[in-house]
Design a protein that fits this description.
two-stranded antiparallel ribbon; 2 domains; elongated; alpha+beta; 4 strands
């Protein structure tokens, strides 16, 4: 039983592995096209959607088994840069449930302020601008 694990570990040694955001997105795109193909029935559109889904899956596996780690990391970084505005809309706002984050209206500096204190005057540590917010 241990033999196959050793072989798999040895095979994957020096390979990218592909457990990154870009590969997760590729898998989501694959599932999207696959489901679209299933719901369109047996048509030429369905065949095209299946081919697109398979091509995306093949590219995803290519990235997983690639030995060019620097290139795969650069691809992932580029993907993260391109999708940053969209991901920020859906991402976690704050994991801290006891504080709120405010930005200074003058310089944009972010500040962490305790929640539940009512209306408070906040002084920016960067530019000393004072503004009032409800915490």
């Amino acid at each position: 039983m241990e033999n196959w694990r050793e072989r798999l570990t040895q095979f994957m040694q020096g390979r990218y592995g592909g457990n990154d955001t870009f590969n997760k997105a590729l898998f989501g795109v694959f599932l999207f096209f696959l489901l679209l193909a299933i719901f369109t029935g047996r048509t030429a559109v369905s065949t095209t959607l299946n081919l697109i889904a398979i091509a995306v899956l093949i590219y995803s596996y290519f990235r997983i088994f690639s030995r060019n780690i620097a290139r795969r990391q650069a691809e992932n970084q580029k993907f993260l840069e391109i999708t940053a505005p969209v991901r920020s809309l859906f991402g976690k706002k704050s994991a801290d449930k006891t504080h709120r984050i405010f930005s200074c209206p003058k310089c944009g500096q972010k500040m962490r302020v305790p929640m539940g204190k009512g209306k408070i005057e906040i002084t920016c540590p960067n530019c000393r601008n004072k503004f009032i917010k409800r915490s």
